[in-house]
Each structure stands twice: as structure tokens, then as C-alpha cells.
From TrEMBL:
Enzyme class: hydrolase
Organism expressing this protein natively: Nonomuraea typhae
Name of the protein: Glycoside hydrolase family 3 protein
UniProt superkingdom: Bacteria
UniProt domain Glycoside hydrolase family 3 N-terminal: residue ranges: 34-320
Amino acid sequence: MSQSDRGLRRLAAGTLLVAFQGTTAPGWVLRELEHGLGGVTLFGFNVGDPAQVAELTGSLRAAGEPVISLDEEGGDVTRLAYHVGSPYPGNAALGAVDDVELTHRVYRAIGSELAACGINLDMAPDADVNTADDNPVVGTRSFGNDTALVARHTVAAVRGLQSVNVAACVKHFPGHGATRVDSHLAIPVVDVTLDVLRERELVPFRAAIQAGAKSVMTAHVAVPALTGQTPATLSPAALTGLLRDELGFDGVVVSDALDMHAITKSVGLAGGAARSLIAGADLLCLGPIPDYAAVQQVIAEIAATVPAERLEEAAARVAALRAWFGDGLAAAADHAVIGLAAARRAVRLTGSPNPLSDPLVVEIDTPPTIAVGDVPWGLELPEAETIRLKPDDADPKPLLERASGRSLIVVVKDAHRHSASRRLVTMLVTARPDTTVIEMGLPIWRPESAAYIATYGAARANAQAAVELLTA
């Protein structure tokens, strides 16, 4: 390989954020970091505890100058707390409280924990205006459906993270909140005019850019008025024309994970990587699926098809981001309490639960989204019997018999999106009007009777706030 080819390969590798299995870095990742690999994205399967993550990131930094990223949104989407649930409520809860100083403090605490673990880029906050109630991928990850509210809390989140030198990555540009399809599985469509896009979806992104957001993540969504049938991740009109030229963003553009079907089932992983760079992206998140052979194919495709000047432009932006990163900070003093304090302020009670007596907790299972993953959720009510069941398989009669003479508490998650959950809740509440229903997703549907608690998320902090309300 000639010197010029090696230089081109280094530029191509420098655009990639790769993933790997396990809690230690494999040899190929360390070797590629020595040769200019952009960095890594960590997932739940890379995380044991904070000390292990710090050791892992230390080994990565010893090999190169990596961007080390993960999705730590608080609430349902967590990587550091993937195995136990987040100690921080997510955006829906923060939007329900609507205190921008609280949002700033929560995100500063999250950023402090990330910095202490050696992570320098957080794929957060979610700036989507969630205008579709049945959105399968956003939901409680959004601050809400009011454009101005989402914008002011997005700014607070960006400033909170970046106050401890963890770069924010505002997502999912140009907006995923009006979709009803999961981009992990297909290409969602946001079929609105450019005027609506500018007045609704783009407002939080514009505000975040003006607040100094260091990076923006693309969405694999098609906006026919802007991108035709092409996902924004692959669209020069979206990434260069709209994001760069119109909104004036000159930070790092990060692609959403390119292993999603919206990309792999249309143009393929390597083709999608090259097209995203040509469209205006600077760093490519490959997602958790590709192995080293696939990474090598992506590097080769980029080197062969993306103009060198475009790769040099991307490298310059990433270099500026690296220069901004701090060395890592100790966790903020209030990180242990701010999450629960925020969750307590978010929880809402309608009606009056009866005092608890030998409670039976029925958790109606909801399949996790791909973005959330298999993060534990539910109620940890002391001295209660807890049953988790799938609503399609549930017979209410034995549940009611088991609950006879006892307090009955039914826990659901996004009941508005699952008809079987709604049917089961309705049958139980009809037979037992003294039931308490706890909604740990978006509180869009509720039974006509029964005491009702809305937590605005299923994080560990949300659950604890609900328990405190029940046992007060």
C-alpha cells in the first residue's frame, strides 16, 4: 500500500465509531485506534460497573485518541445502568416538571458520571417533538409534544452535559417525533411541508445549535419535501443544505447507527457509510452488529468512493471536537440524589389509592424497543407479591381470586400502544374498582375509574418515586 493509500485509509477509518462485544477491547480495535480509527460506541454488553468502564476507556485512550460514545439519555435509554435501570428520569418526566434548571442539573450529573468513566460523547439529548402518540421509537425519550418546551429543555440538557466537557449529540435530525415506524426496521416517513418542518421539528435543533451543541445525530427518516424517499442520513439536502447551510451548524454530524434496516436493507452498510459521508456526516456510528470484516469493508468502500477533501473536512471537525474534550471529572456532588428528586417531582397521582394491605402487584409485560434494549423495569414494592405476565396469555379470573381481600396494583408501560394491555387493565379495574394503575410509559390512556399514577418513564428512579407515593 502506497503512502497516499495509507493516508486515505487513515482518513476513512477516522470517520468510524465501531462497536465490539465484551467488557474489554479486542485486539483489532486497539490496532485500528493506533492507525487512526475515529472511536467506539459502547453498549450495555460492554458495561459491568463504573470501574470496569473506566479501565476499558483507559485502554482505548492508550491506543489512540478515540471519541468514546454511548447512549445515556436517562430514563428508559441507559447504557451505564443497563443491567439495573437508570437512577435518572428521562426526558418525558423532565418535560412534565418543566423546570429547565432541573433538566440542566440532571444532565450535568449524567455528564459527570460519563466523564468519570472516560466517556466524552453522549448520544443525547433527544430533541424530537413527539407529535405521534403511537411513535414506536421516541415516546418517553422526548421532552414532550410542545415545540417550545422541547426546545428549552434541549438547550438545558446540552448545556448540562457540556458544562463537564462531555459533548452533547442532539438527535434525531431533522426530527423523528412524527413517525409511526421504527427506523431500526424500515424507513419512517415524515410527510410534512418544509414550513411545518421549520416551525416544529427544527426548532429544538436550531436552539441547540445556537446554544453551542458540539454534535448532531442524523435520523434515518425520509422527508419527501426535503429528501424524497432517501433517509436524511444519506441526503445532502438534509445534512448539507439544511443543517449546514440553513441552520449554520459547523460541529460534528454523527450518523445514527448504520446497521439499522432503514440503511442495510436499502443501500447496505458500506454503501450507506459512503453515502452518509458524501451527504455531509463526519462520524459514522456503525451500531452493535458489524464485525471486524464488515468494518474493513466499510473502510475500503469509503476510501474508494468518498472524495479526499470531504474526508479531510470531516477529520478537521472531529479534531476540533477532540481538542475541546476535557480529561474527565469526578461525579457532581448531587448526582446520587438529583435523579430521584427529579422523578419525585414528575410523578402524578389521580384519585386516592387505598392504604396497602398485603399487596399483589401485576406487571403487564411490554416488549422492549430496540433503542431501549432489555433494561429491567417494574415496581419494587416492599413486602408485595409481584407477578409479571404477558397480556395475551393472561386470564383475569385467577388474578382476581389471588387478589381477593388484598390491595391490587397493576403496572403497565405505554398501554396506549398495546390493545391487549388495555383490555386486561379494563377487565381487572371493572372487577376491582379499588385497583391502583401505574403507567410507566406515556400517560395517554387510562381506565375510566381506579386511582392512577403516571411516572413518565420506567427508570429505577421513576419506580421508586411511585413506590413512595403508594406507601406515603
